Amino acid sequence: xxxxxxxxxxxxxxxxxxxxxxxxxxxxxxxxxxxxxxxxxxxxxxxxxxxxxxxxxxxxxxxxxxxxxxxxxxxxxxxxxxxxxxxxxxxxxxxxxxxxxxxxxxxxxxxxxxxxxxxxxxxxxxxxxxxxxxxxxx
Length: 138
Fold this sequence. Notes:
- By secondary structure, this protein is α/β, with parallel strands linked by helices.
- It contains 7 helices and 5 strands.
- Strand 4 (113-116), helix 7 and strand 5 form a beta-alpha-beta unit.
């Protein structure tokens, strides 16, 4: 079974129906039938929630969160020691957002595929970290 780690921009592409939304939707469909597993760190989910709250208001943001929790996406709620150390290593080496360090570290530790559209921050990481697998949605 293929394991994916979502970052915020992948989920936002789906919510906004941006290019790459179909890739994310297909992976969620695969997870619904047991052909994939998906995880997202709570810090990345926070990025999506606050963006939704800012754009559509509290009521719709809360509705998004309720619907999200029904999806076949495991929320990584904690920062284990291993995640802490790997996130710290990655953040010290690359100019990436604080929240994305958790998703990237989760992908690094689990061997899962980091699902993103964020070339701006992640191209250099992909070139320099051969042990982290990337899947670009666009």
